[in-house]
């Protein structure tokens, strides 16, 4: 294990670009939002000041309206598309125009416990930015009481089957020619399709062309999908933010209100037809019918569900590595294609922590052991095939290394 600890530390160090960490060289050459939360957690196991710096750097990209972007383009890099000039972000640093699952408050609280004196000082400094970001989420994404994704990239689960039906409404006639870069780094069979990318770009252009005006996006975008990854991570994030606020002697009544709203909102993403948390297209009320790894983030958000325990036991019993990003029994299951099947160590960590906190100790242990087994047998890959463990996507991956180092935090 010591050799793997060292490898994980080397990955974080190699991917460190000075104050921020890239997910992996080549494929993802910038700072990504939720990847950085994991990077911070990883760094906190061997370099605490560097861990806080990761979060601080991310927050320097916060927009005036409170949004913390999903990609921060610190230095130009030809190897990624779409880059800063395509996005036309409105923040103080070149960035994308959408956010990502808000893990920072939760992870900052974990990091705080490693040195509470330093932690308190750091939390005090970042608290206002975190409140502003969470308020932006409530005002610009949670108008229906449930947290909506305005772009598949915002949820973090780019090509999940969750978006298939809602994406049919996206007009791609304006997209034109463009050159993808991802498929020059990774085999196309493990990445989203051309149609997926056309749709991603159409939504990007819609946001950019209205100057990232959230009201216009809410009123005109064909795509607004309530999503368990954003809903559950924000609910959990609010809980930790409230604890941070209390620690700092702040009035947290506004945050408590957000928690109640999102607890109530969980009912809206419960699909009784499949007895699971699911995504719902807010434009027509249709459920996606997708049991995904985000469905299993309920425990992380402090929400109990015997049915979700049943699903996890079934998938485990069928001999798959857990937790696949889409139900292996589902018709759209694709074991190697990104968010349509593969296992992701980061999602496993969130799910495993949630299970443990809610007292599902045996399942939590199974998720943890399998994740550790995948990494030790197949390396620090971006994701893994649930049927046989084959590593896929990018290698030398920051958040996989971070999960290895920080699971016990
Ligand atoms: C993937 O997404 C980016 C776009 O944001 C991409 O494919 O170019 C996703 O897995 C996302 O969740 C992740 O944050 C990002 C970097 O690891 O890669």
Automatic annotation (TrEMBL):
Q: Name one GO biological process term.
A: oligosaccharide metabolic process
The chain's coiled-coil residues are none
What UniProt keywords are attached to this protein's entry?
A: Glycosidase, Hydrolase
**From what superkingdom does this record's organism come?**
Bacteria
Q: Which residues form the signal peptide?
A: none
Q: Which InterPro entries match?
A: 6-hairpin_glycosidase_sf (IPR008928), 6hp_glycosidase-like_sf (IPR012341), Glycoside_hydrolase_63 (IPR004888), MGH1-like_GH (IPR054491)
As for family, the record states: Belongs to the glycosyl hydrolase 63 family.
Q: What is this protein called?
A: Mannosylglycerate hydrolase MGH1-like glycoside hydrolase domain-containing protein
Say which species the protein is native to.
Answer: Grimontia celer
Lineage here is:
Bacteria, Pseudomonadati, Pseudomonadota, Gammaproteobacteria, Vibrionales
